[in-house]
């Protein structure tokens, strides 16, 4: 199949970017979206041009490195990561628009690569536990209700790709922050810092210039890991509880 | 976060007011006496503990404060969202589908429309400074005069505004509950359903009065 690509090209974080159109020929339907970009980049490199920069690592849908906005939707038309999106989701002759995540908290470094350091700083603010880990405890030493364990695990599958921010009409990072808060808040090891964690993480989130959540739900609709929207409500509940208790250490 | 809580709490106050307001409006089907007496009783509420119209003024002050708080947090979140996006997308598309986004996309401009409507509505039926069909001391007559078929444009404006309120509530009630921490995975659909139900009940409840006058069911 033959594809027309409109790709955001930007030399570096200070440069003005623009959309550039490329023709990509002989694309196979079994190629992943990133492999299609590889084909384009081989062509560009052979022609002596600068290849399109994009983030990627595992290409198995579990690392969270890749991610671009394809035709206006984060990670494109399937609910998965960009590396797990295949060209069979498109038709021969399609024109596909590819843009980087757009958020002030995710500045563009080059082309489709953005700096997601703001997510790291949210984690540093409180996304951890202080319990000594040591060797793995006996599985039955610390009984946890099945429902809580499941909820924590569902939230823990967040790979921090940033699609939630990219898709949010307010460019809010609340689903990411909420996933971390819910993940640790459901487990006994997360209790000692639970109140302080949610306050610190939300403060950091706001300091990073993410927008505010208005419960629209675009984030959960594009999340490749299916992080449920109710984690945000859990975060709100924990935050209101923490502020009411005043116990923030 | 403080902004969102302010938005949610003031929103809940306004929804409770709307429910009470709709209840009062439906008195119109009890005839002129029932409607006018209800209106009169509102002014006697709390007497003799409170002065005449005292309770009403307390409610009005709370409502005004709620509207101001609601609008303030909306403007603040709006400007934050604009700044947070920075560069706009060349292509935007909803992953939820355009129909799911209709209510959420009209929240901000819809809110502006509702404020303008409320100003008109108070000038029309409360202070009666705008009096299509003639001013009157009877609230019932103001209503009946204002929505006669020849003032179809007044009715049309009311209908559009009430629909705007309905859409606003469709997302607003759900959003307020989620912000206050009420959402759980299992509750998400029921909360959305409840939000839609309250929005529809209020929309229909508010449309019944004016439309009944226009179509001659209430005279």
TrEMBL record, chain A:
Task: Name its co-factor(s).
Answer: [3Fe-4S] cluster; [4Fe-4S] cluster; [2Fe-2S] cluster
A Pfam family that this protein carries is: Fer2_3
Q: Which residues form the 2Fe-2S ferredoxin-type domain?
A: 18-102
UniProt-listed PROSITE patterns: 2FE2S_FER_1, 2FE2S_FER_2, 4FE4S_FER_1, 4FE4S_FER_2
Q: Which GO terms describe its biological process?
A: respiratory electron transport chain; tricarboxylic acid cycle
Stated EC number for the protein is 1.3.5.1
Which Gene3D superfamilies does the UniProt entry name for this protein?
3.10.20.30, Alpha-helical ferredoxin
Per UniProt, the cofactor note for this protein states:
Binds 1 [3Fe-4S] cluster.
Task: List residues of the 4Fe-4S ferredoxin-type domain.
Answer: 149-179
Q: Which UniProt keywords apply?
A: 2Fe-2S, 3Fe-4S, 4Fe-4S, Iron, Iron-sulfur, Metal-binding, Oxidoreductase, Tricarboxylic acid cycle
Q: Which SUPFAM superfamilies match?
A: 2Fe-2S ferredoxin-like (SSF54292), alpha-helical ferredoxin (SSF46548)
Q: What's a single GO MF annotation on this record? A: electron transfer activity
| Enzyme class per UniProt | oxidoreductase
The reaction(s) annotated as catalysed by this protein in its Swiss-Prot or TrEMBL entry are: a quinone + succinate = fumarate + a quinol
Record-linked PANTHER family: SUCCINATE DEHYDROGENASE, SUCCINATE DEHYDROGENASE IRON-SULFUR PROTEIN
Q: What is this protein called?
A: Succinate dehydrogenase iron-sulfur subunit
Q: Which organism is it from?
A: Murinocardiopsis flavida
Lineage, please?
A: Bacteria, Bacillati, Actinomycetota, Actinomycetes, Streptosporangiales
TrEMBL record, chain B:
Q: Does the keyword Lipoprotein apply?
A: no
What NCBIfam families does UniProt report for this protein, alphabetically? sdhC_b558_fam
**The protein's name:** Succinate dehydrogenase / fumarate reductase cytochrome b subunit
Q: Please, which domain of life does this record's source organism belong to?
A: Bacteria
Which ranges does the record mark as transmembrane? 54-78, 109-131, 151-169, 190-213
Q: Does the keyword Transmembrane helix apply?
A: yes
Q: Which GO terms describe its cellular component?
A: membrane
Keywords, in A-Z order: Membrane, Transmembrane, Transmembrane helix
């Amino acid at each position: 199949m033959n594809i027309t690509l409109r790709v955001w090209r930007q030399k570096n974080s200070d440069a003005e970017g623009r959309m550039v159109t490329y023709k990509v020929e002989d694309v196979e339907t079994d190629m992943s979206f990133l492999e299609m970009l590889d084909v384009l980049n081989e062509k560009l490199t052979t022609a002596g041009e600068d290849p399109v920069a994009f983030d990627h690592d595992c290409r198995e849908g579990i690392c969270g490195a890749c991610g671009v906005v394809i035709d206006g939707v984060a990670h494109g038309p399937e609910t998965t990561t960009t590396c797990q999106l295949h060209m069979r989701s498109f038709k021969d002759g399609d024109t596909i628009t590819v843009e980087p995540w757009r958020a002030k908290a995710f500045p563009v470094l080059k082309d489709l690569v953005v700096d997601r350091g703001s997510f790291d700083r949210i984690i540093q603010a409180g996304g951890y536990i202080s319990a000594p880990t040591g060797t793995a405890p006996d599985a039955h030493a610390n009984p946890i209700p099945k429902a809580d364990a499941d909820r924590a695990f569902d939230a823990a599958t967040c790979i921090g790709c940033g699609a939630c921010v990219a898709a949010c009409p307010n460019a809010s990072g609340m689903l990411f922050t909420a996933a971390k808060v819910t993940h640790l808040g459901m487990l006994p090891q997360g209790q000692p810092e639970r109140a302080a964690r949610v306050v610190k993480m939300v403060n950091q989130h706001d300091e990073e210039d993410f927008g505010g959540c208005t419960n629209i739900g675009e984030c959960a609709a594009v999340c490749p890991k299916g992080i449920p929207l109710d984690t945000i409500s859990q975060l709100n509940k924990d935050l209101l509880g923490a502020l009411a208790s005043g116990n923030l250490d | 976060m403080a902004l969102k809580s302010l938005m949610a709490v003031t929103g809940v106050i306004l929804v409770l007011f709307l429910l009470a307001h709709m209840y009062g409006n439906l008195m119109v089907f009890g005839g002129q006496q029932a409607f006018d007496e209800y209106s009169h009783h509102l002014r006697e509420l709390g007497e003799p503990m409170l002065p005449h119209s005292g309770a009403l003024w307390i409610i009005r002050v709370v409502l005004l404060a709620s509207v101001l708080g609601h609008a303030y947090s909306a403007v603040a979140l709006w400007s934050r969202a604009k700044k947070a996006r920075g560069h706009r997308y060349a292509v935007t598309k909803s992953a939820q589908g355009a129909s799911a986004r209709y209510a959420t996309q009209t929240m901000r401009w819809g809110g502006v429309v509702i404020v303008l409507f409320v100003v008109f509505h108070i000038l029309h039926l409360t202070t009666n400074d705008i009096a299509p069909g003639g001013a009157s001391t009877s609230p019932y007559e103001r209503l009946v005069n204002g929505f006669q078929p020849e003032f179809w444009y007044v009715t049309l404006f009311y209908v559009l505004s009430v629909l705007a309120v309905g859409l606003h509530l469709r997302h607003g009630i759900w959003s307020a509950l989620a912000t206050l921490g009420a959402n759980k995975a299992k509750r998400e659909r029921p909360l959305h359903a409840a939000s839609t139900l309250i929005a529809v009940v209020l929309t229909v409840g508010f449309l019944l009065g004016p439309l009944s006058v226009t179509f001659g069911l209430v005279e």
